[in-house]
Amino acid sequence: MIEPLKREVLESYSNVRSGRHQQGILILKNIIERCPWDPALRELRVEAYKAVGDMMNAITDLRVITKLTQDNTNGFQQLASLYYQIGDVEQALSEIRECLKLDPDHKECFQTYKKVKKVNKLNSDAQEHMNNKEYEECVTVARKILREEKEREEVQYLAYDKLCQCSVHTDPPQALNYCQMALNIKEEPRLYCEMGDAHIADEMFDEAVNDYQKALNIDENLQRAKEGLERAQKLKKQASKRDYYKILGVRRNANKKEISKAYRALAQKWHPDHYSGEEKKKAEKMFIDIAAAKEVLTDEEMRAKFDNGEDPLDPEQQQGGPGGQGFNPFQHFHFHHGGFPGGGGFQGGGFKFHFN
Prior knowledge:
single chain; mainly alpha; J_dom_sf; three-stranded antiparallel β-sheet; Helix Hairpins; TPR_rpt; 3 strands
């Protein structure tokens, strides 16, 4: 029994050392099943796993090795390195700390610790900003990850993924670039959904439909892609009708403050008292559209409906609009002939609009 085993061990070393890693892994599997407590055999298999890019199995063996041998600083350093390579910076930090617990003066572990700690902090901060919808801050911090890590693609993916998600809300065209960079590293269907959202924000509905379809081609059960596809198709159809964002001249990701500012400027511009004759009729129509746009886009529920391709003020879709009563475009104004001073209204020769 001993001699055949020795021959297999020698054969496994020969295969791994000569670059026949897969063959070496097969032989080592049989040997380790009979000699599970030999760290040297697992170390050889770790070498082979790393050579063929099988980092998860390499990690599994290293985990066993650190338990089989005491004070194995090298094992923990390798674990940290492998976790970092696959983009799990939080676990990499945990492993390198184990190395420093064993030897606080370990030079290589300390160098690794400093870098991993910094990248992990940046990644955590970017995630927290994203969770808090602080998208500009998220973008700023995620870019720092790319400045810190210029080689490891899986770590760069962490940055591109967050830049993709956060830039959808701040700079949709740039988000498309970041999403593509992330996709070049890992074809994650969720990223196609982010691209779809970015294309919707830029009112490129055909492109958005294609993005969500790509996501579904990878994962046909991805609910976000199904909903996104339906939304993009509705918005494409809606584009031929009244577009409240275009009426106010704001982007689809505009906040309430931006919407209200645009509304007030346009309401003043198209105040009917500034016009007469046919121009007055046009101004009244424009003013109704502006008021309708403000009504929808400053109401969270109605805006959500519109963003999903449904016009909350379309009687055909809503059976009379909000509350079934239809839309009163002047409900936010009092009309007074001749106008009167005070308040936040607009005053003209015929009547005054006074904001509630």
